[in-house]
Fold each of these.
Amino acid sequence: MELLKGEDFEDLFHAFERSAFHLELKDSYDTPEERGPFGLFLEGRLDEYAWHRSWLNLIREVTQQGKQIQRARLVTVPHVDYTRWGLEVARLNIEAGEDIRYLPRHLARGIDFPADDFWLFDDDRLVFTVFEPGGRFIGGVDVRYPVLVEQCRRVRDEVWAIAIPRGKYVHSEHTSR
């Protein structure tokens, strides 16, 4: 296993050839770079999303090359504030080319989830995301164990088959609870 940080982690998004899939398992993330924007959301104030532009630019760059970026979020219903904020921010990611879907936790019974969030690149490169206890993103652990890669492939396929695209999800019974 190898820890990829900074540019080494970012290079993953330039190196993949066809698809990148991200699974988010937590209901909230307390990353320092999101604290200010999340606070604006909680206060009902306008956000210019300057903090998010580099990711949106990367998504545009990659998807304009014909590559696919997918993200599935496992969420608890009723939603915590962070999930409500994520639903708002996700529209920008989608406009940039990312496909984001939501799966209510109660609909995910029987899926053999790994312990941590992960990225799966081109079906064969597995990278678990790593956070410090204080919430700061450290990087990704590049995992080369075929059994784990296969498990995450299965999880991706199971989740993606039943997860709800954001556009439909925001108008579903799951957001009105």
Note: The first strand starts at residue 2 and ends at 4.
Amino acid sequence: MRGRTRVGAALGVLLLVLVAGCSGAGNRGTTNGFVSGDGSITRVDAADREKAPVLTGEGLDGRPLSTADFAGKTIVVNLWGPWCPPCRAEAPALDQVAEQYADKDVQFVGILTRTKDPTTAIAFNRNKGITYPSFTDEGGQLELGFNDSLPSLAIPTTWIIDAKGRVAARVLDKVSASTLANLIDDVQKSTP
């Protein structure tokens, strides 16, 4: 009888641990293996902006890619994955604003994260009509470059780098076209 009580107690504790782990307590926003953002927007005054990392690596097409090639432009960097529901939801807005600002010295670039095979990302971009380049960054090294300025705390994360190469804004979670356009306008106006 005593053995059954111990087994029953152990199963009860295990059940409580499992229920607590699935409840998200202390882990707000965890969904399907990723932490979603809270939608917060961080803007940095021009005088307080930190230097952005120069992102260098390989694009989805296997060719070398570097944000240094876009020096002097406002750069919008989006951390994403085709497996991420908010990333899929925001893709049309990103594409819309990328097209809207293509002739306004703005360059969009993605950082594909936690995706071993870029084939699904290539298909996703083709399906959504996204033509701006994306880095492959399965190990997360490129996103770590933002740790000294505005680190990523969620997927998706969108950063705006001003024309002087400084991190000017960050959005945690999906972003709407109007919010993103307003942020880009603010960054361009506030960059001397």
Note: The radius of gyration is 20 Å.
Amino acid sequence: MGAMSALAAVGVMLTAQTALATGLQRRTQDPERLAPFGLMLDASAPEGAGLSLSFRPTRMVRLHVGGTHNGVRPGARVGLTLLPLKGRLTPALTLEAGHARPANGEGLERRIVDRTQMPIHSFERVGYSYASALLGFEWQAPRRLTFFVRGGFSIMRLYSPGIVGVDEQFRDALEPGGFHGWSLSNIEPTAKLGILLSFG
């Protein structure tokens, strides 16, 4: 009786160990479950350079949120990528929306006073919002790296508040075209190159 109990206990332990090993193997072979989070670095127009955190709740969907910088001012963006196929090389559809505010009056005044900085006063007073649709491909390399290339179009809205918030003594340094507020909508082609490091 004792031998039978010992054999039964050994059998249960071996079965549990096999099930645990199978579960770990499945997790190792499933990158979506193993590494749902990611850090994405890319370069594109109109955002410039971007750094985002991503989350992949399912195999077909990836969400990302992060910041951008176009050389003049920082911005923020959110996006959604659809990945309809499995495999190392897969097509991808990405939808993004972003925004960058124009520089405030104090920031503009500091640049006017500091002659060592580039004279880009008119550009600093221009903000923009955009929505982009891009098609491309993603290639999953070893070590949890994914490289991607995308192309599409962006609907942009540029705007400027004019000289609102700028002190009188600094207004002479601005171009006459920057005195009055304005807005402009446009459709532009856009392209993006980037890399994603998955973890979690």
Note: The mean pLDDT is 75.
